[in-house]
Write a structure and sequence with these properties.
alpha/beta; Rossmann fold; 2 domains; seven-stranded parallel beta sheet; 11 helices; 14 strands; elongated
Length: 347
């Protein structure tokens, strides 16, 4: 976490929300709210004047929504942004578009009385965002192909996978996963993924990737078989394991406590792969804060699996890959652009 005070600019069209966020964030001694803005035009002027470390940005605003603002801002002035998202379907879709436009992370607006929990989460994510590397967005042209779907209906192979690919990701992972999964050929070995995300967002995320990739991508349902040509994304709010099923494997989706602070947890998934798949597995750890999955990947390695992690230069946050590498789980650090082909080579 940052040793210095993180200077935050709050961008939201609601004066009440700006006040709530300012009060909540200011209670953390390591965060200073240096300014607020009611719309992206005010925000642009405040960014130039105040030079904040991090933005919190409302997803849905009049004049210009948060996504449009990021698409204009990031190529000229890359700055870590944490989106404040609604839980509606439209809010979820727009949030994923914001991640594709350069946002580091998001928090969901609370239902009912969970405001305190949301503020705690926002404080944590603001401090993580202050350490994020977003410099690669400078002069980058926005690519609409990273948003939509191909509209292609995929016929899924019924061939049970002889091997399993397990991938973990957190902060910055939605775009890293898009790059990796879109690099898989249509018949790529059955893959399981844990990306830290709240309830509701994982289905939208899986559907988006399904429209972009050659492989089929779906949100996990309990009992889904692991088959070639399919990627299964763990459900938000549930744990997921890989368990034996006949001549192959299936996923088990279940209610369980947080592990390493997360549900779904990379640790839970990778430990199950180590136990039940062993040397017939490969693993990758992508960008993310903390150490979730580091010991699980070491267990995979000890069971004979081949494992890699994303290198520091291409990570938004070099936390989870660093821990996986230093604890002996990942055998090499690989740039994001080469992870898909490296996994193919290991298989």
């Amino acid at each position: 976490m940052p040793p210095h005070t993180v200077r935050v600019l709050i961008v939201d069209d609601s004066p009440l929300v700006r006040q709530i966020l300012q009060t909540g964030l200011s209670k953390d001694p390591n965060i200073e709210v240096c300014g607020t803005a009611g719309d992206p035009f005010q925000a642009r002027d405040q960014i130039v004047k105040l030079r904040p470390d991090v933005l919190t940005l409302d997803v849905e605003m009049p004049k210009m929504n948060g996504v449009e603002f990021l698409r204009k801002l990031m190529p000229q002035y890359p700055i870590p942004a944490v989106m404040v998202s609604s839980l509606t379907e439209r809010g979820q879709k727009t949030t994923l578009e914001a991640m594709a436009a350069g946002a580091v992370d998001f928090v969901a607006k609370p239902k009912g009385n969970d405001l305190d929990q949301m503020i705690i989460e926002l404080r944590t994510k603001v401090k993580i965002a202050s350490t994020a590397n977003v410099s690669h967005w400078k002069n980058k042209q926005y690519n609409p192909a990273t948003i939509g779907g191909t509209g292609v209906v995929k016929t899924l192979s019924q061939a049970l996978s002889h091997k399993v690919c397990a991938i973990g990701a957190s902060t910055g992972g939605t775009e890293a996963l898009r790059e990796v999964i879109c690099g898989f050929p249509r018949n790529f070995t059955g893959t399981v993924v844990v990306q830290h995300m709240p309830v509701g967002f994982t289905k939208m995320f899986a559907d988006r990737l399904n429209g972009l990739a050659a492989v089929a991508v779906k949100e996990a349902a309990d009992g889904d078989p692991i088959v070639d040509g399919q990627v299964i994304i763990a459900q938000g709010g549930k744990q997921m394991e890989v368990v034996p099923s006949g001549a192959g494997w299936k996923v088990k989706v279940f209610d369980a406590p947080l592990c390493c602070g997360h549900r779904p947890s990379v640790e839970v998934m990778m430990n199950s792969v180590a136990k039940n798949v062993g040397r017939r597995a490969v693993g990758a750890m992508l960008t993310g804060m903390g150490a979730d999955g580091a010991n699980g990947m070491k267990a995979m390695r000890d069971a004979g699996a081949r494992c890699i992690a994303q290198d520091q230069a291409t990570c938004v946050v070099f936390g989870m890959p660093k821990e996986a590498y230093e604890r002996g789980g990942a055998e090499q650090l690989v740039p994001l652009q080469r992870i898909a082909q490296t996994l193919q080579g290991l298989l």
